[in-house]
Amino acid sequence: MNDKKTSTFSKVTKVVVWLMLIAIAGSTILTAFMSLR
User: Fold this and answer.
1) What pLDDT digit, counting tens, does each position of 9-30 carry?
2) Which of 17, 25, 36, 37 falls between 20 and 30 A from 6, CA-CA?
3) A Pfam family this protein belongs to (predicted)?
């Protein structure tokens, strides 16, 4: 029971971290693209 909760928590954390990284990378690329135009 506890292991399942821990794995679910780590899975959610991993997804959140990935979303944050993608958001940061996307905004950085968008900013660079806008400044180039």
Assistant:
1) 899 999 999 999 999 999 999 9
2) 25
3) DUF4044
Tokens 């029971």 -> residue? 1
**What pTM, to 2 d.p., does this model score?**
0.63
Measured between alpha carbons, how far is residue 23 from residues 1, 4, 18, 28, 29 in Å? 33, 29, 9, 8, 10
Give the residue ranges of DSSP H helices in the chain. Answer: 2-36
Residue 2 has pLDDT above 70, yes or no: no
What distance in Å separates the CA atoms of residue 28 and residue 25, rounded to the nearest whole number?
5
Q: Could you count the other beta carbons within 10 Å of the beta carbon of residue 15?
A: 10
